[in-house]
Predict the 3D structure of the following.
Amino acid sequence: MGEGETPTAALNSVAPTAFGKLESLNPTASFKDRGSSVIASSVVDESTPYEGIVVASTGNTATSVAAYAARARIACAVLVPQGTGTAKLSQVAAHGVSVFAVDGTFSDCFSLADTVAEDDGLVNATAIYSANPYVAAANRSVAFEIVARLGEAPDWVTVPVGAGPLLGGTHRGFEELAEAGLVKQVPKMVCVQAHGCHPIVRAFETGASVEPWDEPITTEVGAIADPLRGYSEDGDRTLASVRESGGVALALDDETVFEWQTRLASVDGVYAEPASAASVAAINACESIEPSDSVVALVTGHGLKEPAETDVAPTPVAGADEVRDTLLGE
Ligand SMILES: *Cc1c(COP(=O)(O)O)cnc(C)c1O
């Protein structure tokens, strides 16, 4: 459907050397389409035993897999945590797949999806490394496209992270380009999590391996609130990419993330969902990034999925002069 080949746009308000990779402009408005197109192809491929798809998601994977399943005419069941935003769910339902609400977190949805996929005819399309090999592999194309656009790998890439196959896949893509002699450096990868659920950042800071997040999840930034319960080794794979690249993992509070969602929309014209604004906020928050360093933030999903809480009440107006004065400042 035209997934990938998304724009890499300058974010001049952030820094003269900052760019946003606008994954929000994929067919279902998030980067998840890269993995979903490969998963759907794997089911259609007659050399695999698959006949249907089950997927756990906080929203964007559900929408994406549902769209590609519809297009490939594959049976698809979606498991979401109770309380998932209705904007995302109505998009899922429009694709005509079965949606089930699970009383629990994303981790509980994943564990149920894994049990369902014990039947060989079903593939678990959940967007984490432990579920299937396709998703992280598909995300390598993000690196290929950034280099095609910029001519070289940037110094840094900032990535919002739940379990992290986007960060790990993108890092792998850069490594493959370096191994092929096509780029001189592999960027330092920045893992960005929400403070209200940051198991990977916590392990980065303590030097330990990743432990599941057992405290309450206190962030509203849904797309990256993954406690990694039952598959914390996925977090270790992501952390390994961060460490090997010489990168950083950092947590941001919700207030900062929402502030940048609005700022990005009002200053750069880019409407991103909160998780995606987090990667841009990280350029500002990460002290290791020098002002002259080149950096690409992955703007992972569109703002229409989780709209900013801006004041939308229009000002009542009597005539043209008032409007004109506002525009021309008289
Ligand atoms: C899935 C998702 C993420 C997190 O990516 P992972 O690689 O799965 O951790 C970030 N932002 C958005 C908008 C997402 O949908």
